[in-house]
Recover the amino acids of this structure.
């Protein structure tokens, strides 16, 4: 089955530093990956859509200069939280479409990484 | 615009009892519906999906859901739950197409007690 690997699973950093989170599709190519943020006991909020070889598309209210997304290859997207502050502490989850399941590319369900717990002190 | 409402934030049940987790959606176009499960500190795992065809969809771990277009619902059911089913369950909707965006409900915490 389609596997999405996310690294690290947890990270603690000091306020003002930057943190990079990696999202890899292990057994398929993903031209599009999605980054979500989840607050405690709440749903997932889409932050941005990462497109291989082009700029990411950010959702309204998400600071693109703070949350830098790079999708340099068909199997890797990275999210960098720049100048992190305690309010950036959250659970970040990436996902990717896994085509080839008989429903066409755009109808393919998303497969999720295991998430990254970011704590900014 | 599309939205998802999960009517129950928490559902406690006893082991081997049946369970139904409710989900209603709104969308101005044809929709694709999904249920995902999230275990603590993990990502989401797809339980089942409805794209077209039969309105009764069977998924993994004995779960099933029924798409009801007239009631705009996609309730998740399991006839007999196990302790290991304790998790957060998310209903999600997408209108598909190239502008693929998955909108999630707020989740329902299913707690199975012995």
């Amino acid at each position: 089955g389609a596997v999405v690997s996310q690294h690290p699973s947890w990270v603690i950093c000091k306020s003002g530093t930057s943190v990079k989170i990696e999202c890899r599709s292990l057994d398929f190519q993903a031209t599009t990956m999605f980054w979500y943020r989840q607050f405690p006991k709440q749903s997932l909020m889409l932050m941005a859509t990462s497109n291989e070889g082009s700029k990411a598309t950010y959702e309204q209210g998400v600071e693109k200069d703070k949350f830098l997304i790079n999708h340099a290859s068909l199997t890797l997207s990275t999210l960098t939280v720049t100048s992190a502050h305690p309010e950036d502490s959250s659970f970040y989850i990436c996902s990717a479409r896994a085509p080839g399941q008989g429903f066409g590319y755009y109808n393919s369900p998303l497969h999720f990484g295991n998430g990254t717990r970011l704590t900014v002190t | 615009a599309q939205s998802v409402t999960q009517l129950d934030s928490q559902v406690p049940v006893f082991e081997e009892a049946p369970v139904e987790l409710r989900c209603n959606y709104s969308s101005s176009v044809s929709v694709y519906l999904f249920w995902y499960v999230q275990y603590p500190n993990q990502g989401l795992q797809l339980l089942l999906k409805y794209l077209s065809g039969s309105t009764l969809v069977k998924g993994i771990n004995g779960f099933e859901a029924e798409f009801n277009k007239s009631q705009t619902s996609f309730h998740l059911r399991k006839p007999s739950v196990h302790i290991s089913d304790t998790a957060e369950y998310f209903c999600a909707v997408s209108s598909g197409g190239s502008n693929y965006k998955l909108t999630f409900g707020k989740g329902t915490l299913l707690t199975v007690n012995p």
